[in-house]
Amino acid sequence: MFNVVIVRYGEIGTKARQTRRWFENILMNNIREALVSEGIEFKKIEAKHGRILVRTNRAKEAVEVLQRVFGIVSLSPAMEVDAEMDKINKTALKLFRKKKRELGLEKPKFRVTARRITKEFPLKSPEIQAKVGEYILENEESEVNLHDYDIEVGVELMDGKAYVFVDRVKAWGGLPIGTQGKVVALLSGGIDSPVAAFLMMKRGVEVIPVHIYMGEKTLEKVRKIWNQLKKYHYGGKGELIVVRPKDREKIIEKLTEMKKDKYTCVLCKFNMVRNADKIARDFGAKGIVMGDSLGQVASQTLENMYIVSQASDLPIYRPLIGMDKEEIVGIAKKIGTFELSTLPEDEIPFIPKHPIIRGSWEEFRKLYREVFGEDPCQRKC
After folding, report:
1. Tell me: the pLDDT tens digits for 11-27?
2. CATH: 3.10.129.10, 3.10.180.10, 3.40.50.620, 1.10.10.10. Which one for 182-372?
């Protein structure tokens, strides 16, 4: 029945004309990639008057996929007809009846919203709304209610065509991936780091996922998490990079011998960032993403995050910094990573009973020199 998907964007529309066109082109490329990867055939994708039109006979399936493409605010599977009042009325009634059957309502309340995106149609928007509403009332058991409605019939007119729809599906918004460069995201098997990576993707960033190996069970879990995140990563090409630390057990043993095992978690995170820094430089990435939430655990106090941040002179982005656990879990559930993050993983035997809560940078530097024979900030400082 539907032959086109109306794609609406938000922030892109605020850009200057030339910049907006560049964003539109990247968004259309990401839309194309999403549809091709999911095997959904389409005839044409085009930008027109602040909309992107996707011509496909599988509009409802396309909408399900395109909801996950960042940069899109909402979508509507629609019927394109010539901008003639008779055709608009008949199409609106047809879609109204279909929606009425889907909802199982005998006398649904409805409203009609019309918008002339281009102004060549002779009637104004309120007149179009009145005529479509009157036609539905004459031909179908229903009542008009502008505020408390079951069905909204939408009509958008441009370039001699009318686009009629009864669904407006909300998408994630944000910016198209590929418009804001690349970052390396440290992915553990926990709840937080996938959400941090997701939020950076939402702002148009291509993510290069890096996992610091902790065991096979955890690695398999992280692969599943990344496969879920890739459903939102259209426009990005990052594949999971696994780093296997050398001599980790010997380093932990040395810390224990020195009676400084309270710094174990901070030291491990410091070295994680060191590894991420090298990968970021290899890939031309502009920063490192971590899933830290201020004060959530001992390694995420301001003092300890300051120490960890000294491992790289690249920016370290922490999009969860001001969120509490409930907020993070809510996003994780929406994007489908929560259940994966709660799967069993390898136990970490070297977590100290009493980790340092407010570490000293000077003490850490001294400790690092004793363990590794070099100053931790010799490149940065």
Report:
1. 999 899 899 999 999 99
2. 3.40.50.620
